[in-house]
């Protein structure tokens, strides 16, 4: 009988590895830019064509490679970053696995040009599907240029799974922003389809944030800094009044590496407790510097997930640092931060407690200074234990909540055009309605009671109206007496250009100028007190962080964003009897009175017997 287990050919093994490392064009951008940083480059240029599906090119002025290294970098597990297993716990470079170049070369056509300063000639290497095509000496400036063409050309199924160009560009912009934020001392440029999107000079972090996200961020940044012997924190947090309705502008970096960590995000959000309007999220860019021996970054091929050896201490220090910043900027009641704080920091191998850099603390408990420190600790971390315990109890549910799915109830509540199940027909003569807490409506009718969420009902009604405008392309516009000037970041300009025609159908009137300037001259009619400028910014925010491909169901996504933003003013608003009746009648006549456009339940029916059972 034949043996069944065989070694895979290198080309197939590389393609399997590429499935983890190279998920889309943005993955290639990340790997190539991180390699340029590891090469000590002071200038990095990113060139993109056809959203990275055609060409991805990264040019740097780093150290370059020798002729042998230029060829070896395409071999699996070939790396200059580690030599032994222990090196995995002292990594200070961006890359170390030795998989990126081999994976990229297995699913694309790659051309590498490089030269070291001490070499007279550089080296050209061309690879296609892991096969070496050309290697020769060439003239080339010091540094490295890597061009990746026709990504996934040899795996059509993978290429078909790529999204539309605007979606892929947004992912590329995200990776570019992560790298540019992490290294403000490096000069970057970003060119797509022969148009320059970013030209970022070497700057301090604050100026880099403004250059990336727009001038509006200049006024909302509050400097955050904390030093301990275990970890140091620096960066900026946004002022609460500038918080946005969508996630997406929260950045954590550990040793200049962008990471995703729900636990640390919870620490920041708990520091903002009672400062943010419900459903809003603050901006922050926070850098944690920690000894590599205290973290494990060899968790996932993308290296965006890491493990700390003492997450609870990290949580405490991050939360305290953000609280301190908010207090200094008079956003919460001030605390005495002049007192040294002995964080709950792990002990050194010798058994001595790690000390705060600003002072040393005894491990004994018999002196007054230590008691004062403990009192200050308790004051600073009041309620912190409960926050951590609550987070850890909910930990299994947090990851799904970051990308919450729409859950539609299968239970039929009300009669609608979209649902033909047999229920009682309603009209203005057979129900009575009252308002509760300016948030809910209660309908009394012969068979019982119906509770309606006021805001969600308005979302459904407005959504139907906006969808009608988009389909008919006839949304009315009201002219602004004084046009509003918007500064749109390059990332948001891509989204705006993609949906600009739909905005016109809704009633927006925009005029574009150079430098990302847009004049809002008209807004959809009937918005009442709604600020058209704020509404447009909110639509861009929601669409920007929409995970799905906008080319599919685009009208629905835009109408949903419009309805969500426009209905905010009804979240807690006193309604007259006429307004309540009109709301109920319009809801019953809508396309789906049961669910809001977000899939949330609008109403619940309590039949008479259920009410009797509740009271008995």
Automatic annotation (TrEMBL):
Domain DNA mismatch repair protein S5, by residue range, is: 209-327
Key words, A-Z: DNA damage, DNA repair, Endonuclease, Hydrolase, Nuclease
SUPFAM superfamilies, per database record? ATPase domain of HSP90 chaperone/DNA topoisomerase II/histidine kinase (SSF55874), DNA mismatch repair protein MutL (SSF118116), Ribosomal protein S5 domain 2-like (SSF54211)
Extract the InterPro entries matched here: DNA_mismatch_repair_MutL, DNA_mismatch_S5_2-like, HATPase_C_sf, MutL/Mlh/PMS, MutL/Mlh/Pms-like, MutL_C, MutL_C_dimsub, MutL_C_regsub
Q: Keyword Metal-binding, does the record have it?
A: no
Q: Which GO terms describe its molecular function?
A: endonuclease activity
Limits of the MutL C-terminal dimerisation domain: 432-574
Looking at the keywords, is Lipid biosynthesis present?
no
Q: Which SMART domains match?
A: DNA_mis_repair (SM01340), MutL_C (SM00853)
Q: What does this protein do?
A: This protein is involved in the repair of mismatches in DNA. It is required for dam-dependent methyl-directed DNA mismatch repair. May act as a 'molecular matchmaker', a protein that promotes the formation of a stable complex between two or more DNA-binding proteins in an ATP-dependent manner without itself being part of a final effector complex.
Q: What family is this protein classified in?
A: Belongs to the DNA mismatch repair MutL/HexB family.
Under HAMAP family, the record lists:
DNA_mis_repair
What is the name listed in the Swiss-Prot or TrEMBL entry for this protein? Answer: DNA mismatch repair protein MutL
Organism, scientific name: Aquirufa aurantiipilula
């Amino acid at each position: 009988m034949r043996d069944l287990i065989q070694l895979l050919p290198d080309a197939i093994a590389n393609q399997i590895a590429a499935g983890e490392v190279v998920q889309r064009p943005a993955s290639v951008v990340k790997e190539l830019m991180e390699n340029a940083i590891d090469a000590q480059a002071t200038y990095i240029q990113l060139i993109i064509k056809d959203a990275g599906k055609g060409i991805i090119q990264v040019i740097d002025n780093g150290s370059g490679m020798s002729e042998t290294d230029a060829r070896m970098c395409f071999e699996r597990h070939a790396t200059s970053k580690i030599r032994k297993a222990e090196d995995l716990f002292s990594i200070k470079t961006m890359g170390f696995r030795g998989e990126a170049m081999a994976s990229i070369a297995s699913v694309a056509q790659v051309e590498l040009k490089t030269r070291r300063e001490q070499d007279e000639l550089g080296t050209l290497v061309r690879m296609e599907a892991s096969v070496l095509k050309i290697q020769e000496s060439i003239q080339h400036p010091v540094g490295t240029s890597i061009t990746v063409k026709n990504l996934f050309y040899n795996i059509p199924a993978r290429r078909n799974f790529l999204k539309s160009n605007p979606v892929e560009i947004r992912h590329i912009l995200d990776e570019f922003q992560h790298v540019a934020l992490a290294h403000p001392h490096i000069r970057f440029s970003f060119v797509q389809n022969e148009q320059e999107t970013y030209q970022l000079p070497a700057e301090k972090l604050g100026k880099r944030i403004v250059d990336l996200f727009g001038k509006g961020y200049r006024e909302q940044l509050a400097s955050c800094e904390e030093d301990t012997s275990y970890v140091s924190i620096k960066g900026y947090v946004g002022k609460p009044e500038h918080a946005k309705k969508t996630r997406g502008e929260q950045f954590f970096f550990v040793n200049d590496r962008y990471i995703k960590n729900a636990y640390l995000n919870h620490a920041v959000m708990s520091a903002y407790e009672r400062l943010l309007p419900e459903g809003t999220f603050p901006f922050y860019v926070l850098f944690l510097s920690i000894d590599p021996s205290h973290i494990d970054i060899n968790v996932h091929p993308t290296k965006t997930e890491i493990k700390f050896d003492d997450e609870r201490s990290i949580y405490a220090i991050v939360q305290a640092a953000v609280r301190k910043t908010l207090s200094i900027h008079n956003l919460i009641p001030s605390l005495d931060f002049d007192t040294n704080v002995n964080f709950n920091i792990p002990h050194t191998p010798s058994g001595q407690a790690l000390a705060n850099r600003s002072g040393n603390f005894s491990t004994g408990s018999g002196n007054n200074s230590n008691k004062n420190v403990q009192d200050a600790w308790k004051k600073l971390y009041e309620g912190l234990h409960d926050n951590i315990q609550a987070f850890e109890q909910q930990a299994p549910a947090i990851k799904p909540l970051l990308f919450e799915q729409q859950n539609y109830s299968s239970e039929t509540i009300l009669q609608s055009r979209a649902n033909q199940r047999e229920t009682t027909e309603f009209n203005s003569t057979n129900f009575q309605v009252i308002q509760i807490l300016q948030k809910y409506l209660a309908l009394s009718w012969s068979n019982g009671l119906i509770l309606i969420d006021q805001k969600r009902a308005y979302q459904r009604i407005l959504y139907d109206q906006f969808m009608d405008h988009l389909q008919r392309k006839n949304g009315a516009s009201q002219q602004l007496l004084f046009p509003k000037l918007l500064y749109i970041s390059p990332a948001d300009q891509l989204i705006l250009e993609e949906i600009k025609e739909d905005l016109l159908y809704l009633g927006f009137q925009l005029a574009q100028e150079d430098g990302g300037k847009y004049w809002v001259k008209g807004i959809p009619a009937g918005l009442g007190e709604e600020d058209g400028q704020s509404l447009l910014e909110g639509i861009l925010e929601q669409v920007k962080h929409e995970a799905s491909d906008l080319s599919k169901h685009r009208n629905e996504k835009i109408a949903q964003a419009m309805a969500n933003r426009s209905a905010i003013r009804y979240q807690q608003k006193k309604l007259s009897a006429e307004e309540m009746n009109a709301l109920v009648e319009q809801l019953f006549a809508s396309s789906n009175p049961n669910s809001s456009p977000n899939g949330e339940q609008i109403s619940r029916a309590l039949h008479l017997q259920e009410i009797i059972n509740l009271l008995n």
